[in-house]
DNA sequence: GTCTATACGCTGATAGAC
DNA sequence: GTCTATCAGCGTATAGAC
């Protein structure tokens, strides 16, 4: 893995764990094992690293969803799998929250121009979820249902981070799965 | 209003709009109209200001809910009013997110010892909501329902902050109100 | 491509005059 | 209680040797 790629990888992780603004060049450099000076050969400003991290997240998200689409599971199972991310990533969410929601909010508070790009990750999930509901026959309100599922994940992630209560997460996932079953019964 | 109270007020607002760590002493001092030096007469460290802000938020939250309880509205109307906060505070939420969820997450990422106190604001809402559902006759699962309503507000706030789509917020509030009607029908 | 050395503003925080 | 003056440390960023 090239140095630039290592920097983006380390920054991606640190931006998630500590936040964008709090993460210093020194911390990223130390994480990668290079000097602070060498840093500026690859990225001229901190905003450039942020942009690279956002692009990497967009790419990895699209890749993950494409892999899911290629699998044998149907759209209902795929949406269930998406909702269960709050269980799969439970430890990280308890410690740091959802990487998408917390970054977009931090950039909103900073008034950062890259905020819109960060929201793009939400848009990738939204579009993908909409496609799943369309496959399930809910073409008229597929986007509404997609937004509802996104709302669910963000609400659970925020409260999982606050309360760190695994029973709560399990119950809410069960509630969403019941809701999902009702939705496809309607279609 | 005393100087100390003004400091807490300004810090409360700035912590919400800019985040805790990003808000500097200089910014708070400027907002209040005092010098940076005078600051340390009232608060010895930044963490002390944070604690004062959290205590102020706890007090104002309790006060607001007590006022609601004293009103003529029943528990169902009160819960609806709570859910509609995402519309009442729509502008601020679009710009800065939910003050409770974003502070608890920032403190989680910082590993800050006051995180638990910040979560206390969530606990105040949770306890109050639980009481409303108990009044509605859902004693067995009042806490689950309370957590669901909290999950709703946090999810909507995060996506309202990301997408800034007022139709989405309106639709989700309508969806919750429908859900609430179903819940009291069960009881 | 990677390093060391360095500039310089802003941070939280302190000391002491008034 | 409020002020000015000042501190040490860290932040991003640059210059230039290797």
UniProtKB/TrEMBL annotation, chains A, B:
Gene3D superfamilies assigned: Tetracycline Repressor, domain 2
GO molecular function, one term: DNA binding
Sorted UniProt keywords: DNA-binding, Transcription, Transcription regulation
Residue ranges the UniProt entry marks as DNA-binding: 24-43
PROSITE patterns xref list: HTH_TETR_2
Xref: Pfam families: TetR_C_13_2, TetR_N
Domain of life (superkingdom): Bacteria
Chain ranges of the HTH tetR-type domain: 1-61
Listed name of the protein: TetR/AcrR family transcriptional regulator
């Amino acid at each position: 893995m090239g140095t630039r790629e290592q920097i983006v990888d380390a920054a991606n992780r640190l931006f998630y764990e500590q936040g964008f603004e709090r993460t210093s060049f020194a911390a990223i450099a130390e994480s990668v094992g290079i000097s602070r000076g060498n840093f500026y050969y690859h990225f001229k400003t901190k905003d450039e690293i942020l942009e690279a991290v956002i692009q990497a997240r967009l790419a990895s998200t699209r890749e993950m969803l494409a892999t899911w689409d290629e699998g044998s599971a149907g759209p209902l199972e795929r949406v269930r799998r998406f909702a269960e991310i709050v269980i799969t990533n439970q430890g990280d969410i308890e410690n740091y929250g959802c990487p998408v929601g917390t970054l977009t909010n931090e950039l909103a508070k900073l008034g950062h121009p890259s905020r819109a790009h960060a929201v793009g990750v939400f848009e990738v999930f939204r579009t993908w979820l909409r496609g799943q509901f369309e496959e399930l026959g809910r073409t008229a309100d597929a986007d509404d249902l997609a937004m509802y599922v996104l709302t669910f994940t963000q609400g659970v992630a925020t409260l999982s981070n606050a309360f760190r209560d695994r029973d709560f997460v399990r119950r809410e996932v069960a509630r969403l799965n019941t809701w999902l079953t009702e939705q496809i019964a309607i279609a």
